[in-house]
Amino acid sequence: MEAPAPPGPAVGAIGRGMAEEAVFYASPVRVLVVVPTYNEADNIERVLGRVREVLPDAGILVVDDGSPDGTAELVEKAAVSLGDVSLLRRSGKSGLGSAYRAGFAWGLERGYEAFVEMDADFSHDPAALPELLAPLEHGHEVAIGSRYIPGGSIPNWSWHRHLLSWSANKYASVVLGLGVADSTAGFRVYAASILRRLDLGRIRAEGYGFQIEMTYRSKQAGASIAEVPIRFVDREVGQSKMSMAIVVEALGLVAYWGLGRLFGALRRPWSGHDAGHGPDAGHGHDRGGGEQSTGAGASSATGSADPLQTAPPGRRDGHRA
Predict the structure, then answer these.
(1) Would residue 268 count as lying in a domain?
(2) How distant, in Å, are the alpha carbons of 98, 110, 121, 138, 240 from that of 71?
(3) Rg of the Cα trace of the chain?
(4) Assuming Cys at both sites, which of 35, 148, 249, 303 could form a disulfide with 314, CB separation 3.0 to 4.6 Å?
(5) Local structure of 79: helix, strand or coil
(6) Tell me: the pLDDT tens digits for 124-181?
(7) Does residue 1 sit within a domain?
(8) Domains contained in the chain, number
(9) For residues 194 and 295, what is the distance between their CA atoms, to the nearest angstrom?
């Protein structure tokens, strides 16, 4: 039911030790936990209850893509007892990235200052939320729950699945110059300041690709990024939404953005002060004439279209497991 300038670009790992149990956490800023759902009736009430235990003052927004299993109705029921739980109903399955973009826009309109991304299936432990939010208190604008820094783990994964995931993250980090160990991670926090500097309407990817793109664009806009170790576990109840098509889309988009980054670097020596003609030029600007990016990584001139404007169409069905 509907409820009424950072440090320069930096990436760091914060090894605080893993959260063992839920603790009461009073955030100094207004927090909105955004939870996309599609057929999560088996999990949604429990996960909302656990989030409320850990973050008693946070707002929770469930973005439901027309789940036929009654997920939305269960959210409305839980909202009565938990309080400050809102539901954004959508008519059909539109993808993970689309769900988060809608949730971010909803929260920015209502003055929230920190935005948590998390799954509804307990692969992201609500007990880790205080540690994930902590970097924002120290000036970071993005905090990523990382499986691939010391202290992070993925129990029960086969070695080949682990290798595939690690390799994909390494590939994205090298090709895009991210300096992030786990850019595909879906358990993360954004400060409102970086979401305002990004043009969310130009973020096109879904699934893994959405997480990579948000990391890439945040760094371009000058965000300071911290990684916090987490324990990622597979869902115990319900059906995974991950597919090979989503993985292929993400890898293809990384290659596409990487080529744009390479061509932009090759053109700079010949363009002198005309920096607005690179493939990534002007992404941080609000094309509607609103707030412009002041981040160190953003271009100061407009120019030819960003590769994302003309990115080849990919699968938009991106809810992750």
Answers:
(1) no
(2) 18, 24, 12, 36, 15
(3) 19
(4) 249
(5) helix
(6) 999 999 999 999 999 999 999 999 999 999 988 888 888 888 888 998 999 999 999 9
(7) no
(8) 1
(9) 9
CA dist 307 → 257, 262, 317 (Å)? 7, 12, 21
CA distance 117 to 71: 18
Q: Note the pLDDT tens digit of each residue in 69-114.
A: 999 999 999 999 999 999 999 998 888 999 999 999 999 999 999 9
Flag whether 89 is in a domain. Answer: yes
The single-letter DSSP state of residue 195 is H
> Among candidates 231, 239, 157, 241, which has minimal Cα distance to 207?
241
3-state secondary structure (DSSP) of residue 77: helix
Q: Which of 81, 74, 85 is nearest to 42 (CA)?
A: 74
**Residue from 205, 214, 202 nearest 302 by CA:** 202
Determine the distance from the C-alpha atom of residue 93 to the mean position of all C-alpha atoms in its chain, rounded to a whole number: 18
Report the C-alpha gap between 140 and 145 in whole angstroms.
Answer: 14
10-13 and 31-37 strand pairing:
unpaired
Q: Taking the model in full, what pTM does it have?
A: 0.74
Q: How many residues does the chain have?
A: 321
Structure tokens at 252: 């293809």
Q: Cα dihedral angle (43, 48, 54, 60), rounded to 10 degrees?
A: 140
- Concatenating the DSSP letter of every residue in 25-71 gives ---SS-EEEEEEESS-TTTHHHHHHHHHHH-TT-EEEEEE---TTSH
Lookup: tokens for 230:
């987490």
CATH number at residue 108: 3.90.550.10
Q: From the CB of residue 79, how many other CB atoms can be counted at a distance below 10 Å?
A: 18
In terms of residue numbers, what domain contains 191?
A: 10-250
Neighbours of 172 (CB within 10 A): 29
User: pLDDT tens across 243-268, in order?
Assistant: 566 667 667 777 777 787 777 665 65
**Banded model confidence at residue 11, pLDDT cuts 50, 70, 90:** low
103 in a domain, yes or no? Answer: yes
Q: How far is CA 165 from CA 61, 152, 224, in A?
A: 29, 14, 24
